[in-house]
Structure formats: structure tokens, C-alpha cells
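Hi R.,

Here's the chain you asked about this morning:
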Amino acid sequence: MSEYDARSWQAAYLIAFLLGDALWRWTVGVAGGAAALQALMAACVLEESPRWLDSIHTKERRAGRATALLACHWREFTIASGLALAHGATGANAVLYYSRDVLQRAGFSQPLALSLGVGFVKFLGALTSICLVDQQGRRPLLLGGTAIMCAGHVGLSLSFWALPTPGVLALGSLLLFIFAWNVSWAGLMLTVASELLPQQVRGIGVGLIYALYWLLSFCISQTLESTLQSLGEGVTFAAFGAMTAVAFCFVWKYVPETNGVGLA
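And here is the predicted structure, written out as C-alpha cells:
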């Protein structure tokens, strides 16, 4: 996740807070207006990249070669696909999108104001990742971030399961989870996947991996509310914690360090 993306989330939380629940349509409309402005600027200002212009004459031939090369580099593609599955299994997007609902369930009467803190922590996590990713490497950030995310899920589970008032523990665990996610998976899934795949298949490979991740995230997000209702918050976050632990084991066993490795 880029620094710009983190700033955009912070701006979105701020706009939602300033407009309030009663004007939620205006909140959505502001985002739509920003997207329209971005599309207009892209159409009027951006130019086609030299690499794309060079490839248009051999597009069909290269597409066929990329499909064959994916089979040749099946190990790299499998690990990259595993990154998408591991990232989705942490439930990060679902927790982020439903952070307000989680805070409401924890007993906070003004969850919209607290969402500003969620946005700030996202921004801080993205900055931390940018500062450390080349110094510490991809693998340590993924392992450390995943471990802390697992601790965040455990904290959320315990706050709802064992405490009469989840309150502070739930808020702290949520912010810890969001921070660790932005230090690790939010920006590094695609970074590591693109560095694993050779140049000839990087475009189609990363596209397939990103589609796989968002498909899994969509399924988890669509079932989160019903899962919370049927299983309860404690069991739900305990299950997410278990899946995050599996993601940690996957990174530990299969994901190599790609920092400083030349692009093939």
C-alpha cells in the first residue's frame, strides 16, 4: 500500500466524520467525484508507457507465451498465489471495512470519531513500511507483521469472549492489527509476488494473483456480518487468528527474501 493510498484513506475517514451519518450520501458522492476527477486527469495528462507501445505489435504472441511460461514457472506462481490466499485469510480487508461495526459491538458510542484513529494508524503503518522495507527486507516485515496481526485477532477475541466490556482492549487490538497489516501485507503482497515472477509472465501473473486475493476478500467481507451473528465476536476473531497463524507458517516455510534480487 502506497503512502498516497494511506493518505486517501485518512481523508475518507475525515470527510465521513465531518459530514456525519445523516449525510452519508454526500460522503459517497465526494468519493465518486474524486474518482471522476482522477479519470479525467488520467485521460488528459497521462501518456502510454514506452513498454506498452513496444508490446502492442506482438500482444497476441506474447499472451500465448505468457500462458506457457506460467506453467514453466509453476513454483514461483504457486508461491505468489499462496501469498494472495494467505493475505486474504487474515481477514484484513473485512476487519478494516467493518472496523466501525466492531467498535460499536465493543461498546463505543462514537465509533465514527474513533475511525479517524484507524485512518491515522493506517497512514503510520504505511510510512513505517516504506522506511523499513528495503532496510529490513520483505520477509522479516511479513513475518513480524503477521505475528502481530495474529496477536491483534487474539486480543479482539479475548476482549469479546472474556471481558464484560470489550472497550479499550478491543480498540487497542484493532489498531494494533491495522498497523501491523499496513506494515506488512497491505503493500508487500504485490511487491513480493511481482519480484518472484519473471518479467515474461509478471503482468498476467500479478493480475491473476490480485484477482484471486480480491475474490477471497469479497467472500470473507460478504459473510462477516452473518458470521458475527451466528458464531459471536469471540469465536469469529479466534478463527481469523488461527487462519493468520497458518499464513505465518506459509511465509516462514515457503516465501523467500526477494529484497535485492535482480528482476529476471
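One quick note: The mean pLDDT is 82.

Cheers,
M.
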